[in-house]
Amino acid sequence: MIWTDLSTAPTSGTCVARAADVTGVTVMMLTTAAGDFPLLLVRQGDQVIAFVNMCPHQFLPLDYRAKQILSADGQKLMCSAHGAMFDAGTGEGIGGEGLGCRLITVPVSQVSGQIVIG
Question: How far is CA 15 from the centre of its chain?
Fold first, then answer.
């Protein structure tokens, strides 16, 4: 599945946040004409990576039961519902129910200090 398969996917070019405001993990809900789109932004050095905030194991938001989903070293994301672990830079499943799965990547770029989809 890719992010545009979701009926609530925002259009390419949608501005989602100021780049300077993204530290660690930023969880947000984007409202589109079709409804709400769950987005997860992860700061990795100078780069911001985005994923659909949806665990591929049970389709719940990673922060469903707890807000702390990023490991102390900033390298892993954990689903708070059942402990699936994902690489914070790639979304690849690396532990628990995450093995064999991956988070859905949303392409983003930094344009004039803003994080933009597409």
Answer: 15
DSSP 4-50: GGSTTPPPTT-EEEEGGG--SEEEEEEEETTEEEEEEEEEETTEEEE
Query: Which long-range contacts does 33-41 make (Cβ < 8 Å, 24+ apart)?
Result: 34/7, 34/8, 34/9, 35/7, 35/8, 36/8, 37/6, 37/8, 37/9, 37/10, 39/106, 40/77, 40/103, 41/16, 41/17, 41/108, 41/115
Predicted structure pTM score:
0.94
pLDDT one-digit tens code per residue, 43-78: 999 999 999 999 997 789 999 988 999 999 999 999
Dihedral class, residue 96 (left if φ above 0, else alpha if ψ from -120 to 50, else beta)? left
Strand order in the sheet with 114-117: 15-18, 114-117, 108-111
